[in-house]
Amino acid sequence: MKRIHLPIKVDATSNGEFAPAPVSPLLTRAKQHAVALLTDNARRVGLSRRDFLTSLCGAATTLLTFNAANASIGNTGGRYDLHRDAGLDVDLAAQTLGGDDFIFDIQTHLIDPAGSWRSSRVRAGMEGFLKRAPQGSCGEDDPVVCFDAEHYFKEVFLDSDTDVAVLSFVPLPAKINPTTPSEVSQVRDLVAGLEGSKRLLLHSLVLPNQPPYKQQLESMEQAAAEWDIAAWKVYTQWGPDGVGWALDDPEIGIPFIEKARELGIKNICIHKGFPLPGLSPKFTTAEDVGRVATMFPDVNFLIYHSGFEMGRREGPYDPQDAERGVSALVKSLQDNEVAPNQNVYAELGSTWRFAMRDPTAAAHVLGKLLRYVGQDRVVWGTDSIWYGSPQDQILAFRAFQIAPELQERHGYPALTPALKRKVFGINASGAYGIDPQAFRREAKNDVVGRARTAYARTPNPSFQTYGPSTPREFLALLKQRGGRPD
Length: 486
Description:
By secondary structure, the chain is an alpha/beta fold. The chain has a domain at 104-443: Metal-dependent hydrolases (TIM Barrel). It has helices spanning 25-45, 49-53, 56-71, 90-97, 123-130, 133-136, 149-158, 181-192, 213-226, 253-262, 289-295, 325-335, 351-355, 359-373, 391-399, 404-410, 417-432, 436-443, 447-455, 471-481, and strands at 78-80, 104-108, 164-169, 200-205, 229-235, 267-271, 300-304, 344-347, 378-379, 400-402. The strands form 2 sheets. Strands 2-3-4-5-6-7-8-9 form an 8-stranded parallel beta sheet, with helices on both faces. The chain has a two-stranded antiparallel sheet with strand order 1-10. Helix 8 links the parallel strand 3 (164-169) and strand 4. The longest helix has 21 residues, at 25-45. The model is unreliable at 121-125 and 132-137 (pLDDT under 50).
């Protein structure tokens, strides 16, 4: 029997920065139950199973099944708030899952299948990871092509409601660089078309603690001159000797931030959380974020993953137990008197995707960030294309609600449609200088808008994930990177 891929992709896939986490037995059984319900519901409404899967009823059926499974063990701090018949009535499903939100995904990735990295010494490690069965099912003979510009365009801009995305651009030598300038140019051309719409922005990786330090700062000048860079991305945990750096390090962090200010590109994306394997965890936490936020009030510090860590279940904020995870970010802001809605942003890439499994922990993650970082400073990111199309993350967030008792007990806000619109795109648009309303007017009939209209007649989502899903695949990807961040 052909394997059915659920429209809400709860599985072990990682973004390559942490070891894949197996799905719990409870959710494994829930996924199996969802497959049976999807088949039955498709029959009841007179649709083929494939057509039902691609409808909002398919996503609603899956989310309602997850609700029931979590409720059976009292995991009810959050839930997917859908009408009980949404799995059978598309209008009921659309009341929650439909939407015309401006969606700005500030963390996405792709790979160049024709890059010279494929002939380098790391080829075996990368291709060993890429050749697992799911990649081959994207329809290409070469599974690496599943990560290219055209598949990125389909997964992000056709199979999801994403309007604008930020793409990780890594200015490394071509022989070791899976994300080459040529592939970045291709996807940007695909997205912009003749209209030149700015649906795709770039951030540039910087390794300010790799000697010689001066050369790293000069590379920022080069990137800014050659590309329309919208932000910088750094990994404070990474270091050539396995030891990272602090954002307020006077020899590394401060010169880097000052160079960003000098170049007029004041968005700095910082990996915090998800400790990188084989590296010291000392600089993983966000304890230094509040310190530099007060030093540089004109710089936007976008905290990728919001400090979230695997293997640590998030609960309410307790300053006496806030050494790691999302709470460490909150504590850093409070210790340095950084009020909500200032120059620190909490990004949800991989964080929301993993938290979707556990509604109570998800409620605490979102609740803490919205209360302490600010309702105007929690921003949307998905880490796609590692997780395939981000549409399932979008639909799950549209449906998610924090339980009223947690709102009352911990001061968490209700996830109103207006607040979700802020998270989806309005909050990040301010940092990146985008006017959502003007953009939507101009982009309505651009190349993406026209392609979406045509694609909607015969949609063909893959419901696939593309990142490593087993320890072996994860280690192969680490080998390819040679310990360097992406």
